[in-house]
Structure formats: structure tokens, C-alpha cells
Amino acid sequence: MAHNEAVDVVLVGAGIMSATLAVLLKELDPSLTLEVVELMDSGAAESSNPWNNAGTGHAGLCELNYTPQAADGSIDIKKAVHINTQFEVSKQFWSYMTRRGTFGSSKSFISPVPHLSFVQGEEGVSFLKARFEAMHKHHAFSAMEYTEDKARLAEWMPLMMPGRPADEPIAATRVMKGTDVNFGALTNQLLKHLSTTPDAQVKYCKRVTGLTRKGQGWSVSIKDVNSGNTREVEAKFVFLGAGGAALPLLQMSGVEESKGFGGFPVSGQWLRCDNPEVVKRHQAKVYSQAAVGSPPMSVPHLDTRVVDGNTSLLFGPYAGFTTKFLKHGSFMDLPLSVRAANIGPMLAVARDNMDLTKYLVSEVMQSMEQRLESLRRFYPEAKAEDWRLEVAGQRVQIIKKDSKKGGVLQFGTELVSSKDGSLAALLGASPGASVTVSIMLDLIERCFPDKARNEWAAKLNEIFPAREKVLETDAELYAHINSANNESLELVEISSETESFA
Ligand SMILES: Cc1cc2nc3c(=O)[nH]c(=O)nc-3n(C[C@H](O)[C@H](O)[C@H](O)COP(=O)(O)OP(=O)(O)OC[C@H]3O[C@@H](n4cnc5c(N)ncnc54)[C@H](O)[C@@H]3O)c2cc1C
């Protein structure tokens, strides 16, 4: 065992979260020394890989579960507005990076793809209409269009209309300014940029196996997965950006704030189509409503994906039950995460979510024909030979202590940080990669509060001329920032004329 280096920051995992935080920290303080440690042999090998997630640039434009309906019929758009402005914050960072010249082109990771919401049945149509009325008055959604007209729907969704009963009540909304993001390409572009900066290293095939307190910081044990050799690195600050595996690492740290958290892993599968004749007839991300009783991560969508210059279609996700925390993880991940402090919340969640477990198991047991049936709700004329099943990334949903129920299951993300600000971990999955930059800014403000207020403040203002709160309320500023971002990221709105892909 070698005893050697000391750095300012160790980041565990080379996914979108660590890559973003590492680059951001180096922009704020170029003198920082840092090391990214990744157990796989490349960046973005888990959830950030483009085929492990849906690549939706979540901006609240199409996700129906972001706008719940109250008993009185009113629609709450707060969450959609917040996620929309968080996405504008992400775009500000990516714009800043692309303007630097050495970072590379945004075309490799972000593409304009319209975002549509699609509903069936009288109840679905009246929900979507009410939602449209509530949303399009807000400046973030002023470009949203609504229609129940079949001819118009055939222009918006040429693949999805043939073969439908003529009297089927359906409706859709459309926002032309949606995006598809290749988070894998973005991650690798950030990591490549990082390795060109002084005193920043990205080390692959290295697993973090231990975290112990050392003075004001941490001693991090790093094992080479090929040779088995372990080295110790001392760090003033540690970020656990290990995706699904962040929970066991957080537990390993022993910090008080880790107590009581558990993980509920959910696997996923997609149907993928690369047939160019089919692909060219669908140029959109079309989100619908989840089946009654199913969890939010199972909201079905039919998506255009732009990955490495090729366009495909992805449908799903089909959720499933697993005990692994990473796609390349171990079936022992879940049992080994049980602790005295989280067994109560975990048992409470198991007791209160039997329906969810049954649902996930039933999803795993589905035949290809049953999966195609779900696809045909969207694309009635889908042929089996055009589609193949692929395994998506893992999501580890958060289990938390709850004073009334004992434990609750949470579907969002949660940043957990130690009281002294020397360690932070990101738990959970959704809306995930799209809002990485906002999450990392939150981390910086929590763990480096003095620097964020003082020596880093000018740079933060330069990179982020407008943050979420002001973008939510200032329509003029929003329009200015949105159009500047779209220009820097070369997000030229694709034509609403549909002949090009009909
Ligand atoms: C099915 C699915 C669909 C999704 N769809 C979308 C979407 O449409 N839009 C969106 O914005 N987000 C989406 N997400 C969420 C998004 O993919 C994630 O939020 C994001 O990729 C998480 O990034 P990360 O860096 O935290 O984790 P990851 O990308 O999983 O990276 C973690 C890394 O840590 C490494 N690691 C783990 N343990 C160790 C260790 N001990 N030592 C060293 N390295 C370690 C892993 O190998 C991995 O490379 C989706 C996720 C899933 C699963």
C-alpha cells in the first residue's frame, strides 16, 4: 500500500455530476488540485451513458407528472416552472463552456427536438386542456401549442396517428424548443477539458473502497481494479458522485447526516428502433401519462434520440425490480446497505409499497408481445421486427426516515452534505442529469459558503448571469437568457413544417 498524495478535492465517479462539479470548481479556482476516481475504464459508463437514460433535456415542457391536478381541477405548475429554470441554468454553464473555444462544439451533445405531451380518453383530454391553460400564460411556456384536431396531430406526430380509431378522444401539446441531450458525450467532453487543466486528474479502473476522517478532511482508499494495489489520498473535500453507489459510500463515511437513508433500486428497459424508415417519421419526444397505480419513473414516452450523429427511437421505460445499485453492480448491493439506522425506514417502505414491488415484478415478467402492446398505444402500427429490447440504467430511489410513517420513498434527488462541509453525496435519480448544474451550485453554496459569497462570487455571476428564482418571475430577463443560450448552443429551432419528416 502506498501512502502518498494530498489533493484539495476527490470526486468519486466519472458521471455527469462529478464531471460538472470538477470543471465548475476549476473555473472558480484554477489553483485547486483535484482527482476524479472512476471504477470503469471510461467516463459516463453508468446512468450518464446515452443509452442508459432517455436523454430528455427536462425543462417541464412535456412531463405530465410535473404538473399535478388538485381535487378542484386546478393544475399546479410550480415544479414544471422550477425545472424549466434549472435547465436554463444548465444551459448557461454549457454556453459559457462552448464560448471558451477549447471545449468543443455543443452539437455533439445537445440537439433540438420538439417536446410533446399526448393524452387519450375524455379525462386525459380535459386534464391536458386545463394544464395548457395554466401553463401557456407563464413566460417559460408561452410557446406551447395545444390541439385536439386530428389533422394537426398527424402533422405533429406522423408516426403515431395511422391505425387509430377515428372516434378516439386524443389531444397533445407541443413546444418546438425542446432538446435531446447526449449526457455521455457531454460528460466525456467535460472530462477531456478537465484533464487539460493543471493539477486535475481523471483516473479510470480505480475503485474507492474506504473513507476515513483525517484532520479537517478525509483519507480516501483507492484500489486499482486490475492490480489490486491500494493507495491513500488525503482530500479536504470529497464528493460522492457515484450514482446508485453513492449510498454505500455515504454510509462508509459514517457522517451523522447519512443515518436513516436507504435505497430502493429500480431497473429499466427500453425498446429501441434504428430502422431509418420508421425513425424519420417521428421527430419528437412524446410523453404521456403513467398507467393508474404505476410509479412516476414509468411514465411512457416515445423519443427521438440523437447519439453520435445517428438518430434512433426509444420507447419506455419498462421498470423492473433488482437488488443492484449500478448496472454493473452486485446483487448484494441492497442487502449490504441495510444498517441499524435504516432498517426501520426500509421495512416501513416495504410494508407501504407492496403494490409498487408487485408492479415492478410484473413489469419484469412481461413478454415482448406485452411490451409491444404498450408501444402500440403510441404507435399503433409498430412492427416487432423494428424493435429490440435494451437494458437501461439503474435508479436508486431514496428511502428516508419519516416521523409518522417510519419511512418514505422519495422519487427526486437529494444532496446530502456533512455539517462541516467536507463531504457531499448525491442520492436519487430524477430529474437528474438535466439539472446537474443547479444541484452542483447548491453544493458549492452549502459546502463552500464563504468562497461562494466572496472570492468566487464574481466568476459565478459571470457564468450565471441569471439564476432560477429570478428566471421564474422576470419574463424579459428569461427571454434574453433563453435566446442567448439557444444561440450559443446552436439550438436553431427545427422547422414546424412537418413535410421534412412526414
Ligand atoms: C432509465 C433512466 C432514464 C433517465 N432519463 C433521464 C432523462 O431523460 N433526462 C435526464 O436529465 N436524466 C435522466 N436520467 C437520470 C440521469 O441519467 C442521472 O441523474 C445521471 O446520469 C446521474 O449521473 P451521476 O454522475 O450521478 O451518476 P452515474 O452516471 O451513474 O455515474 C456514477 C459513476 O460512479 C462510478 N462509481 C460507482 N461507485 C464507485 C466507486 N466506489 N469508486 C469509483 N467509481 C465509482 C460508476 O462506475 C459510474 O461511472 C435517467 C436515469 C435512468 C436510470
Which secondary structure elements does this structure contain, and how are they paired or packed?
Elements: E1 2-12, H1 16-28, E2 34-37, H2 78-99, E3 110-112, E4 115-120, H3 121-135, E5 145-147, H4 150-156, E6 170-175, E7 179-181, H5 183-195, E8 200-203, E9 206-214, E10 217-224, E11 230-240, H6 246-253, E12 262-273, H7 276-279, E13 285-287, E14 301-307, E15 310-321, H8 333-336, H9 340-352, H10 354-364, H11 368-378, E16 388-391, E17 395-402, E18 406-410, E19 413-417, E20 423-428, H12 436-447, H13 449-453, H14 457-463, H15 468-473, H16 475-488
Parallel strand pairs: 1-2, 1-11, 2-8, 4-13, 11-20
Antiparallel strand pairs: 3-7, 4-6, 5-6, 9-10, 10-11, 12-15, 12-16, 12-17, 13-14, 14-15, 17-18, 19-20
Helix pairs in contact: 1-5, 1-12, 2-16
Bound molecules: flavin-adenine dinucleotide
Rounded mean pLDDT is: 93
Rg is: 23 Å
Number of continuous helical runs: 16
Class computed from helices, strands and strand pairing: alpha+beta
Number of DSSP strands?
Answer: 20
State the shape: globular
- Note the gap between the termini: 62 Å
**Helix share, percent:** 25-40%
**Proportion of beta-strand residues:** 25-35%
Low-confidence stretches: 497-502
> Tell me about the biggest sheet?
10 strands, mixed
